[in-house]
Amino acid sequence: MTTVVIAAAIAAMALAGSACTNNGAAEAKKDAGAALDTTRAGADKVLAATKKAGQETAVKTEELVGDSWITTKLKAKFADEKSLEGSDINVDTTDHVVRLRGTVRSDAAKARATEIARGTERVTRVVDELVVKS
Fold it and tell me: Count of CB atoms within 10 A of residue 116's CB?
């Protein structure tokens, strides 16, 4: 009988240990699942922030490239324009707004420089600060 009681006690401890192990495994799975969900949520936030930053950078880059392109294009057009020979025109472009400064030989040259600038792709406005120098 003592042997049966001892065997029963050992079996009971084994079952209790197994139950604890199963409960521990279930808790570990639950904790791992929660950690995985938190990691996914964090990764989604990082992805969204990175995407937004990338879009903002692209817009800023386009503005810079656009302004530089406009300035370069206008300088090339002015260099090829016969009516602007002898002129000293400074071109500054900010947010697609062109500012023309410097000197030209005549009112016609001033009008031509402004006309060229206004007709250039991506230019939204021209500020004419050119001075006619006789």
Answer: 22
* Whether the Cβ atoms of residue 100 and residue 130 lie closer than 8 Å to each other: yes
Kindly state the tokens that stand for 116: 């060229």
Q: Residue 17 phi/psi, 5° resolution? A: -65, -40
Domain span holding position 91: 2-132
Q: How many domains does the chain have?
A: 1
Let me know: does 96 contact 124? Beta carbons within 8 Å: yes
What is the C-alpha R_g of the chain? 38
Q: Which residues of the chain have pLDDT under 70?
A: 1-25, 35-36, 58-65
Tell me the C-alpha distance between 31 and 113, whole Å.
71
Which spans in 1-134 are helix H?
2-80, 107-118
Query: 110, 25, 124, 109: which is closest to 70 by C-alpha?
Result: 124
Q: With contact defined as beta carbons under 8 Å apart, do 73 and 120 qualify?
A: yes
Q: Is the pTM of this model over 0.70?
A: no
